[in-house]
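It is worth pausing here to work through a concrete case rather than discussing structure prediction in the abstract. The textbook approach is simple: state the sequence, then state the predicted structure, then interpret. We follow exactly that order.
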Amino acid sequence: MTLLNELEFRNVFRVGLFCIVSAWLVFSRVFELTPDGLERDRVSRVDPAIKRATTNRLNGPLPIPAETRILSFRNGERPMSPCRLIDRSAAALLTAGLALAGLTAPVLGADLADDPRVANAVRLWSEWVEYQAGTDRVPGVSWGIVHDQDLIASGAFGQANPSDGIPAGTETLYSICSISKLFTSIALMQQREAGRVRLDDPVAEHLDWFDIEDAHPGDEAITVRRLLTHSAGLPRESDFPYWTDADYPFPSPEALQARLEEQQTLYPASRYFQYSNLGLSLVGEIVSAVSGQSYPDYMREQLLGPLGMDDTYTDIPVELRGDEMAIGYTALDRNGERQVVAPFQTRGIAPAAGFASNVEDLAKFAMWQFHVLDGADRDLLGAASLREMQRVHWIDPDWETTWGLGFSVVREGDRTFARHGGACPGYYTEFRAEPATRIAAIVLTNAIGASPGLYAAKAFDLIGPAIAEAKDSPDELTEPGVDVEPYTGVYGSIWGQSVVVPWKDGLALLGLGSMSPAEDMARLEYVEGHAFRRIREDGDTPGETVRFEMGPDGMARSFVRHSSRAVRIER
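Step two, the predicted structure:
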């Protein structure tokens, strides 16, 4: 049974059991099946500012379809079962009923996505990302947040194809470039588990054409392990100008092999970290050699297919470009403009940089990793092998650069992330997972010079604590003393823009130009009327007052802080 089928079976079983046990509660108090009941459940997950006209940074003002700003929870906008249209008091009754039946009510997954702490954190983070991407003139951004086996939130904004007005979405394809290396490395580890290759095998043992000139004879042989950790001393690239020439002349596998004998190593093996697309392309060649399958066939049959990643490609599907696949754009020029990047395919470099995928499929990839780490799935890779990949195997002499087997393994404070970014012509992307918390962030963009790595990292700072709190204390919710929704929204002045969202028992106020949103966010507590006061971090005395000025529609039209006014931006 594939992972996808197993998860689908488990979810169907859960839903069926849920409905049966709750049936006697349904007609007593739970449901509000008005004709728009199902629609109300969906619309409740839409950002209140959904019906705005945003600015396309390439072509001026352009209406963005509402769905591009949906904060789509759990698993996208799939139809909701009536069994989920329950209020919190009914959910509590259901929990008690399941307990009497000897069952456990699911706390995470469905409930986690609905927790206001998580929803508000996602709302704050997504507003911040949209502003940051907008000021960087990034045409489109698609993103997803995974917790364990659930895509708890996902969304997109901007354009996949600005010239045709096609919006970005969670199913939009992007080149994910070097995130491809994770799939190639996992394939190698599958072959290691099958006994066909060892990490300390010399590369030449499996590739008899591996004849690069050794500029440092007498040192240790270049091994498979060194390829995976970028410590083989190889040049960064096969000797072709495929990143810069107009036609992106990526070599075929045969051309890569033929050119190899004309290249030489940069450093002795196991001496320095040198990121190498050539090295990971060779890993793909080893997978093909020891498995007896072509690289594309192996990846489809042994990894992508079993994971249900049907919208992931081992090389760029140029025929989908501009429709299902986002069009890529250059870096900003000095006039603040971007140009369209011509289509490309990576050919022999595909194992290092060729894949195209979307948020939905990469979420499956993250879920599978967490499934494996829990010991629940050994069909594709054992937990021990994945843990081995996601711990540090290389530390550079500067003690700053660290790498796992394929994964970039980084330590930030007391947290460890297994990640990889991607940077190909027209696309910058990021996949970042925290194995300890079972959280992953996926950010895909269609512009060179975008900051998906920054966006993903800040998701852990803002959304991670909310997930932890919702997971550990699902029933300890604090409600504001007043209806705070009229105060929420985006406000601006000549100095920039700020966003106000509900936060715990009050509000959160964040300047959207901040590079450290979790640290710079101000929490506001209700005082009286339409006045709030900042909560100081030291907690000794209250901070300044933030006073909202209301409009005739009952919504705040501005706020005043430090005697300075910011006006609501209608979107």
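Step three, interpretation. The first helix runs from residue 3 to 30. The mean pLDDT is 85.
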